[in-house]
Fold this sequence. Notes:
The structure is a single chain. By secondary structure, this protein is α/β, with parallel strands linked by helices. The chain is built from twelve helices and seven strands. It has helices spanning 9-14, 33-41, 77-83, 100-104, 130-136, 139-150, 155-168, 174-180, 190-206, 208-222, 236-248, 278-283, and strands at residues 23-26, 47-51, 67-70, 89-95, 223-233, 267-269, 291-297. Helix 10 runs parallel beside helix 11. It is globular and about 60 Å long. The mean pLDDT is 92.
Amino acid sequence: xxxxxxxxxxxxxxxxxxxxxxxxxxxxxxxxxxxxxxxxxxxxxxxxxxxxxxxxxxxxxxxxxxxxxxxxxxxxxxxxxxxxxxxxxxxxxxxxxxxxxxxxxxxxxxxxxxxxxxxxxxxxxxxxxxxxxxxxxxxxxxxxxxxxxxxxxxxxxxxxxxxxxxxxxxxxxxxxxxxxxxxxxxxxxxxxxxxxxxxxxxxxxxxxxxxxxxxxxxxxxxxxxxxxxxxxxxxxxxxxxxxxxxxxxxxxxxxxxxxxxxxxxxxxxxxxxxxxxxxxxxxxxxxxxxxxxxxxxx
Length: 298
């Protein structure tokens, strides 16, 4: 089984409009699928830096003089590129979310399919795990996480049920959490609701929304003029942030206008929103919710 089947591979790498002598960054290395495709298109002078905070990704390091893998969270992209003497790049690619590998390794606790300890950390040395969120967050905090990141309308009732159950015994595994919430999981919708609950907890554990915002805010400074940003997201929370940032350079409200009423934004979008073909979804179920947005630096 492959470590990770890259989604929208040719569309996302093609969107970078690669200069063979350019410098590129793949901020979500994983199994290296996107990175390998970028390297194929680079000449001898080209350079590729990749980021991945998951230690498991190190086993996929590519033996190529043009390639450097940085075992860090991509929220620190500027800092670690500067450490390597890089202040400007030609293109940045991000394939957000959890890799197939992380979903398929039961003990990582990402999947609703396996009974595993509540973990969900992309970086296994981080302190905050799903266990902490489920067992130690106050009811109000838990409800906010489930509502904000899982878009669950009954988040208060879910949080209350979790708090009542953990007073008797700590909730240690994914199947125990499922058991606690069973009355909220009608057969027809069980998988969907569980996926929303797991997504909410995972986003909180890994600070995915904050990380994405911090990363996007650094991209205008890093990219050269006409440099490209290629981002694949998997749920509406991420996609909305990416879309708004490309349109307005900010995440909320309206961009400021100058004296003449003109808006200065860092990017212009390149082409339309790209989604996977039916064929790709058939071959790779993970692709079903993927959305690719490409932007060009003004």
